[in-house]
Amino acid sequence: MARVLVVDDVEIVFSAFTEDLASGDFQIDTALSGESALEKAKSTIYDIIFIDLFMPGKDGIQTCKALHKISPESKLVAFTGNIYTGLINKEIEFKMAGGEIHFLYKPFLKGEIRKIAQHLIQRSN
User: Fold this and answer.
1) Is the pLDDT of residue 85 over 80?
2) Most buried one in 11, 30, 113, 120, CB count within 10 A?
3) Rounded distance between C-alpha atoms, residue 38 and residue 67, angstroms
4) Cβ(102)–Cβ(76) below 8 Å
5) CA Rg value for the chain
6) Alpha-carbon gap, residue 39 to 24, rounded angstroms
7) Helices (H), the chain
8) Can you tell me whether residue 117 is helix, strand or coil?
9) For residues 30 and 24, what is the distance between their CA atoms, to the nearest angstrom?
């Protein structure tokens, strides 16, 4: 069973991940901030960590950098609901911080999260 952490400051987003990953294949934890995600990653090894790029406090890039140091074996994936012209620069920063970009944008398409999660798990096996 793959362990997944979803990091977003908007709680309603967690339901999309829960619905899409609802099966015996994934165990899902959530964190409402980058700081909370770091605390969870200190005590739990996650296979995949989905991180919102734009959050108050530690943003997605800062969270990615810190998580990459704490849990280098975790696959770190960015997602966002903010589409704007400078987004590509943020995605590049996220990738340089140790994360992966799979073009996961809110609102998510049905099955999109599961497809990415399964791809990452298969690639690491």
Assistant:
1) no
2) 113
3) 6
4) no
5) 13
6) 25
7) 13-20, 34-43, 60-70, 87-96, 112-124
8) helix
9) 17
